[in-house]
Design goal:
α3 (56-66) packs across α7, α5 packs parallel to α6 (138-147) and α9 runs parallel beside α12. The chain has helices at 22-26, 32-45, 56-66, 87-91, 110-120, 138-147, 199-209, 236-247, 249-266, 291-300, 326-334, 346-356, and strands at residues 49-53, 74-78, 95-99, 124-128, 150-154, 175-179, 192-196, 272-274, 285-288, 335-337. The chain is of the alpha/beta class. Bound molecules: pyridoxal-5'-phosphate. Pyridoxal-5'-phosphate (PLP) is lined by residues 55-57, 81-82, 84-85, 128, 154, 156-157, 179, 181, 192.
């Protein structure tokens, strides 16, 4: 029986065992490989600072603390994203305003976002680059200058995609947050990082990562915190794995693009509409008629689907009337992610397409 997982991470060769260098065994948390991975990411993404951490969620928490999110601060966020985007703001007690997406895409609706900005004058806007769809808009950038709010980019699903001006998404505004978990384009099994061009913010992020102590753990003599923080330091062992995967990034990106274009060319079923993107999308997403019937059909044929992200307005913490968010609610109810990820063989993808074309 063939069992298709919705995501397969990249393996170069079959059953290849990773041998860990001896010096790694001596380290428990940060060390040589953490700094090496930070430097490599810095060069690749062309950004001044990278601060590696334990997950994308940790990166978002660090960014939210570094930008002083706290009670009475006003935060705007897209209604369609993974809850990790907004959890730090919720935990820190901020006031959250949700905005609907564009029709049939997973991108925030900039008309509505810009209107909300003018109305509420936020402290922070969190821009999410979901499944590689880069969220950008000229009016938004000029409103940022006018109202002087800060921007956190959640680029957890957007790594290696670029803005129109050629900048990598996650590097344009104050702080970018990325996930390096196993379902992302590059993984270190579990990890994430913040990017920033501000040395001041980078210093703050490193301090938050180290329980509020303003020194790298190896050099801390006086362990006195200067601000609030947590232990969000990554393990060197995982950073080592991240470096190995980063070395294969060109092959990985090529494979992910090939998978997406197969779906695009070969899905010939009017009940299934692929959400198109010119960018690198690790989660090929489709809008389907009668989602529960489709789900049963796929289950019967051993194709495992993922339901994608759901609307924040449907979560118990942020419950709001669905009337305000017609487009994101529509996606939430009708969108699924097809099997993706660079570990798939193209013939597996072809087989999936052949099956779903019969739905
Ligand atoms: C949009 C988005 N933000 C944040 C995260 C959190 O990343 P992590 O799972 O590494 O904590 C994810 C993870 O899937 C995500 O998709």
């Amino acid at each position: 029986m063939i069992h298709f997982n919705w995501y397969k991470p990249f393996e170069k060769g079959n059953n290849k065992t990773v041998i860990f260098p001896k010096d790694l065994m001596k380290k428990k948390t940060m060390g040589k490989y953490t700094y090496l991975l930070e430097n490599k990411l810095k060069k690749i993404l062309k950004v001044k600072n990278v601060v590696l951490t334990t997950s994308g969620t940790s990166a978002l928490m660090m960014a939210s603390m570094a930008l002083n999110i706290k009670p009475n601060k006003k935060i705007i966020c897209s209604n369609l994203t993974w809850i990790a985007t907004i959890n730090p703001s919720l935990i820190l007690g901020a006031k959250i305003y949700l905005v609907d997406t564009d029709k049939n895409t997973q991108k925030v609706n900039f008309n509505k976002l810009n209107k909300t900005i003018k109305k509420i004058k936020p402290d922070i806007v969190i821009l999410v680059h979901l499944t590689g769809e880069v969220a950008e808009n000229k009016e938004f950038t000029s409103l940022k200058k006018k109202y002087r709010f800060k921007v956190i980019e959640d680029a957890s699903q957007g790594m290696f995609n670029k803005y129109d001006n050629g900048k990598y998404c996650g590097t344009k505004f104050e702080i970018g947050c990325f996930s390096l978990s196993v379902t992302k384009i590059i993984n270190m099994v579990y990890g994430g990082f913040c990017t920033t061009n501000s040395n001041y913010l980078a210093d703050k992020l490193r301090t938050i990562r180290n329980n509020g102590v303003n020194a790298e753990p190896e050099y801390a003599k006086l362990e006195l915190p200067v601000m609030k923080g947590l232990n969000l330091k990554p393990s060197d062992l995982h950073a080592f794995i991240g470096i190995q995967n980063l070395k294969n990034r060109k092959l990985i990106v090529k494979k992910v693009k090939e998978i997406f274009s197969r779906y695009k060319k070969r899905i010939k079923n009017s009940k299934i509409t692929l959400i198109e993107t010119k960018n690198i999308s690790i989660y090929p997403s489709v809008i389907v008629e009668k989602i529960s019937k489709f789900s049963k059909f796929c289950q019967k044929n051993n194709i495992q689907l993922h339901y994608g992200v759901r609307c924040l307005s449907e979560s118990s913490e942020l419950k709001q009337s669905s009337k305000k968010f017609p487009n994101s609610i529509f996606c939430s109810k009708n969108l699924v992610r097809l099997p993706g990820g660079p570990g798939y063989k193209l013939k597996e993808i072809d087989r999936i397409i052949k099956i779903i074309n019969k739905y």
